[in-house]
């Protein structure tokens, strides 16, 4: 058995994995080429109950998504999709994000109170993500249900009937592939500037993606964009309204929202852990020898609170001078494709909520933080209820 002498990395016998929770160690593992992100298969005890369900479509589709792609396939797919997520491309969407937030908040003002996630963030993210991937407005409801059904397959160990959840996921995967095929066949309906309209214009190009690749990535980008960003937005609002100095600063200088979101990413780190890694060869990280085949869990939340890296790490301080790049989006070849978009959405929502025009403040009862049932590596406030003037 290998043992560690570094403070930020240790083998946990019970979990059977290396736990990396130091900042330096997190960076070292993320940057090393000795680790892959393996596709996690369902535990055998769950498969006993789902034996009669044809889950091939779900498994096949996950081979195409960026996160589980490797080498040249990963680079080709990522190159094709990346142009939609650069800082510049994201800045081009800010005005429409702001406009939508204001429209939704004006509706909320009539009731005097909003549930941030249900009334603002969900409708906003559904619109933005549909526009980004290319789902025409009339088909958004149906597409959203299918995408959810696939994500909910991750809930298997938590609740409900695994067979039923998998059956719905498999049907939804087929429905999404057919929808993408149909949309590429009649591109006039596609939202301009979306991934699908870009793909339709390049269908004869050798570097273009196949229908199956597009369907898998459109679905996974849509869901990744919604499920995680929802928590970043809620955490940002929580930090703004529970930190008097942040709210005061934002009201005086709205551009400080960048520092507030950056500190929220560190302090409330929406992805507690980033996807599990497996060593593809023996490798030494500082003093720890990690053997080929060992599992490695990267705990971003703890690494972001490493007292060797940050002064007063357990304090939220948007004026801190020892900030560094966020770990919650991961690093290296699989770093989050949508990080600029997620950050921009949190900034635009946070800036607008702090606008004195809305007189917003957090309503009781105050929320605790919880992990998401279907995706327990994600966490954030259970709810954000805001009273509006
Ligand atoms: C706060 C919000 C978000 C968080 C915390 C988050 C977190 C992550 C993490 C931890 C990874 C894996 C990185 C790694 O293992 O090295 C990842 C990958 C990814 N994320 Fe995000 N994400 C967020 C928002 C988004 C959004 C808005 C989109 C799409 C618009 C998106 C799309 C993706 C994609 C496609 C990948 C796979 C990239 C690849 O494998 O090349 N994410 N994200």
TrEMBL record:
Pfam families per the UniProt record, alphabetical: p450
InterPro entries tied to this protein: Cyt_P450 (IPR001128), Cyt_P450_B (IPR002397), Cyt_P450_sf (IPR036396)
SUPFAM superfamilies (alphabetical): Cytochrome P450
GO molecular-function term, one example from the UniProt record: iron ion binding
Gene3D superfamilies reported in the protein's UniProt record: Cytochrome P450
Superkingdom of the source species: Bacteria
Coiled-coil positions: none
Record-linked PANTHER family: CYTOCHROME P450 YJIB-RELATED (PTHR46696:SF1), P450, PUTATIVE (EUROFUNG)-RELATED (PTHR46696)
Family the UniProt entry places it in: Belongs to the cytochrome P450 family.
Name of this chain's protein: Cytochrome P450
Species in which this protein is naturally found: Streptomyces griseoaurantiacus
């Amino acid at each position: 058995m290998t043992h560690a002498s570094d403070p930020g990395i240790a083998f946990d016998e019970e979990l059977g994995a290396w736990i990396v929770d130091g900042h330096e160690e997190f960076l070292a593992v993320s940057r090393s080429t000795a680790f892959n992100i393996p596709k996690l298969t369902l535990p055998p005890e769950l498969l006993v109950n789902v034996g009669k369900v044809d889950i091939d479509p779900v498994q096949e589709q996950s081979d195409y998504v960026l996160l589980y792609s490797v080498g040249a396939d990963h680079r080709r797919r990522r190159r094709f999709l990346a142009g939609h997520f650069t800082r510049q491309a994201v800045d081009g969407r800010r005005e429409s994000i702001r406009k939508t937030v204001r429209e939704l908040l004006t509706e909320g003002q009539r009731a005097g109170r909003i549930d941030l996630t249900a009334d603002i963030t969900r409708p906003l993210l559904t619109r933005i993500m549909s526009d980004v991937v290319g789902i025409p407005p009339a088909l958004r409801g149906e597409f959203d249900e299918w995408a959810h059904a696939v994500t909910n397959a991750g809930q298997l160990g938590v609740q409900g009937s695994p067979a039923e959840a998998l059956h719905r996921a498999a049907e939804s995967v087929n429905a999404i592939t057919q929808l993408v095929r149909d949309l590429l066949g009649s591109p006039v309906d596609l939202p301009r500037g979306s991934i699908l309209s870009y793909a339709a214009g390049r269908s004869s190009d050798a570097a273009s993606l196949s229908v199956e690749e597009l369907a898998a990535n459109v679905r996974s980008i849509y869901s990744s964009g919604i499920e995680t960003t929802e928590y970043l937005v809620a955490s940002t609002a929580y930090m703004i309204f529970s930190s008097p100095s942040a709210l005061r600063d934002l009201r005086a200088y709205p551009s400080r929202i960048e520092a507030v979101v950056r500190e929220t990413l560190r302090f409330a780190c929406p992805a507690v852990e980033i996807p599990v890694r497996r060593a593809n060869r023996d490798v030494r990280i500082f003093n720890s020898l990690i053997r080929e085949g060992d599992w490695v869990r990267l705990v971003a939340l703890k690494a972001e609170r490493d007292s060797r890296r940050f002064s007063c790490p357990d304090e939220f301080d948007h004026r801190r001078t020892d900030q560094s790049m966020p770990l919650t989006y991961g690093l290296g070849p699989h770093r989050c494709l949508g990080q600029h978009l997620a950050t921009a959405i949190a900034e635009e929502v946070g800036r607008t909520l702090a606008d004195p025009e809305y007189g917003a403040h957090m309503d009781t009862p105050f929320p605790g933080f919880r992990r998401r049932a279907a995706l327990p590596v994600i966490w954030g406030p259970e709810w954000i209820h805001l009273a509006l003037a």
